[in-house]
Amino acid sequence: MKRRKQDGVYFFWSASIVICMLIALFTLGFASCKKGTPAASPSAPASESPEPSPTATGEPPESNTPDVTESPAAQNTGARLGETADLGQEYIDKFIFLGDSTTYGLGYYDVVADSQVWTPENGTLTLAFWSTVKIVYPDDGTEIPINEASAKKQPEYLMITLGVNGVSFMDETYFTEEYTKLVQAVQETSPDTRIILNSIYPISAAYPAENGITNAKIEAAKGWIERIANTLGVRYLDSASVLKNENGALPETLNNGGDGLHLNTDGFNLVINYIRTHGYQ
C-alpha cells in the first residue's frame, strides 16, 4: 500500500514536470511566430529598413530637381529698357546727361541744351575719379561734386554714360564698386530721380589699340553696367546698339573727325532717337 502511494507521488511530479516543459516550449514557439523579424543583412544595421518605392505606394516619383519657382513679385523682370512709342522732344527735355567726353558732345553740337549736360570743365569724367572730380553746374556755372549737383537740381531723369576711359585700367570689381557708389550717391541725394545707366559707345576699328580701349572690353563692361542697374533698381539703355556696323565697331561715318572714339552730330542724333523710342515711363 505504501509502495503504491509513493509510486503515485512520483507519477504526479513527473507528469507535472512534463506538462510544465510542454507549456514552456509552446510559449517560446508562439512568441517566435509572433515577432516574425527577418535576420539583419550583414551590409545594413538591423534598425534600418528600406523606404517603400514610389511605385509600391502608388505615389508619383519625387523629383531631384529643386523647386525654383518664384512668386511674380520675386521674379526679376530686368532693367533693360525696351522699345516704346516715340516720346518726343518733350521727353528729352526732361533729362540731365552726366558723363565723360562722349556726353560732352551732346551740348557741344547743340543736340541738347548746354544746361542739360554735366561734365567737368575739361569735358571728360573718368569713372574711377567721380567722387573727387567736380562738374560744372550749368545753372550758375559753379564747380561742385556730383552728389551736390543732384541734391540741388533734383532732375526728373538722369542718364549716366561712363566707363569708356575706365575699361583701359579698371577690372570688373573696381569698375562695379565705383559705378555702384556713384549711383547710390545720386539715389541718396535725389531719391525721386529716374536713373538710366547708358551703355558705353563702341569705338571704330581704326582706334589705336595702344590706348588700352577695345570693343571687347567695352562689351564686357556693358554687361557689368546692366548688372549694376538690376542690382540697384535703376534702368539700363543699350543705345550703343544703333552705333555698330556689321563688325560691332563704330562706323567711320559716325565718329568725330576720324578720332574713332567720339560721336559726331549724326551719331548723337541716333542716340537721342533711341532714347525717345525706348522710354522710361
Please describe what this structure looks like.
With 281 residues, the protein is an alpha/beta fold. It has a domain of 189 residues: SGNH hydrolase (Rossmann fold, 3-Layer(aba) Sandwich), CATH 3.40.50.1110. Helix content is 38%, strand content 9%. The chain has 8 helices and 7 strands. The protein has a 5-stranded parallel β-sheet, sandwiched between helices. A two-stranded antiparallel sheet has the order 3-4. A hairpin with a 4-residue loop joins strand 3 and strand 4. Helix 5 runs parallel beside helix 6 and helix 6 packs across helix 7. The termini are far apart.
Beta-strand percentage?
A: 5-15%
Strand order of the largest sheet: 2-1-5-6-7
Instruction: Based on Cα principal axes, name the global outline.
Output: globular
Low-confidence stretches: 1-13, 22-77
Helix content: 25-40%
Structural class: alpha/beta
Distance N terminus to C terminus?
126 Å
Arithmetic mean pLDDT: 81
CA radius of gyration: 41 Å
Largest sheet entry: 5 strands, parallel
Question: How many helices?
Answer: 8
In short:
The chain has 281 residues and is an alpha/beta fold.
Strands, helices and their partners?
Layout: H1 2-35, H2 54-57, H3 88-92, E1 95-99, H4 101-108, E2 117-118, E3 135-137, E4 142-144, H5 146-153, E5 157-161, H6 172-189, E6 194-198, H7 215-232, E7 235-237, H8 265-276
Parallel strand pairs: 1-2, 1-5, 5-6, 6-7
Antiparallel strand pairs: 3-4
Helix pairs in contact: 5-6, 6-7
What are its keywords?
281 residues; Rossmann fold; alpha/beta; globular; disordered N terminus; two-stranded antiparallel sheet; 8 helices
